[in-house]
Every structure is written in C-alpha cells, then in structure tokens.
Amino acid sequence: MNGKGRDDAFLSECVARYSDMVFRLAYQYLFNRQDAEDVVQDVFFALVRRSELGRFNGDEHVKAWLIRVTVNKSINAAAYLARRRAAGIENRPAASGEEHSGLEEQLGRLSPSDRQLIYLHYYEGYTAKEIAGFTGLRENAVHKRLSRARQKLKNYLTEED
Question: Is the pTM higher than 0.70?
C-alpha cells in the first residue's frame, strides 16, 4: 500500500474513533452544536494538513494531539464568537434543542481551563497524571484545580436552588 493509502486509512480511523470525543470537548467551550461541529472539521483538517502523520507514537499520542488542537481551536472560536457578539454582529437566541440543563449552564460559568479539566476527568475518564501530560500542568496542580472547579460548580448549583 502506498503512503497515501496508509494516510487515508489512518485519517478514516481517527475520524471514526475520535470525532465524538472532539465534538464533546469543543461543545464544552462553545455550548452550540453548529460551532462545535465547525471546530471538529477544523481539527480534522489540521490532522490532514499535518505532514508527518506516521510520526504519531500510538493511539494515546494521536488522542493527546487531537485534545490539544481541539482545546486551542475551541478557545479561538469562543473568543471570535464573543468578539462578534460584543460588536453586535451576532445576537441570536439559541436554536431549538440548545437549551442547557442546569449542570451545563453552571459548567458554562466555569473558566475554560476549569471546564477542560472537568471534561477530561469526568467525561473522558482521564487521570490527573494523564491530564497533566495533555495540559502541561503538574499533576498536583491538576488535582488542586479539579478540586477548586468542583467546589465552584457545587457553589453554583446550590446557589441556583
């Protein structure tokens, strides 16, 4: 099989295996299906453009790369959308089906970095050590920030009641 065939198979496998994870992570930043889907496309286009596809060292390396790129693209998209809303260009109500549960609303009140940690730990099941590897934080810092984020979330949820 030529290099292009291997690359195509690799890309197809990555999309099949990781697109749901990429979408869920992007949604944690954007809280909008269409915007999260745009980020998913951008992430996989970035993977296609990556010239050294064969240089990944296994599934965990691919997953870590996808998480890092998704976080960066989601933060950029959220900042862009916030600037557009602040400028009055996009003042639209949420589309039908985008209502948030109480928990999702309160997650939205957390900082993007806190949401990222909560998502990676509770939704994707990563350990603090693995999260430290993805984010560049120390493992103890991940534990401390997760604890603080949980406390903030608890406070937000109790103040809602």
Answer: no
Question: What's the average model confidence in pLDDT over 30-35?
Answer: 90
Token readout for 149 is 């984020």
* Residue labelled with tokens 């286009």: 45
Would you mind telling me the total number of residues written for the chain in this entry? Answer: 161
Residue type at position 23? F
Q: Give the amino acid at 1.
A: M
Interatomic CA distance for residues 50 and 6, integer angstroms: 14
66-98 confidence digits (pLDDT tens): 999 999 999 888 878 776 665 543 333 444 444
* Cβ atoms 84, 78 nearer than 8 A: no
SS3 94: coil
The pLDDT of 27-47, averaged and rounded, is 92
Nearest to 24 by CA among 79, 70, 80, 68: 70
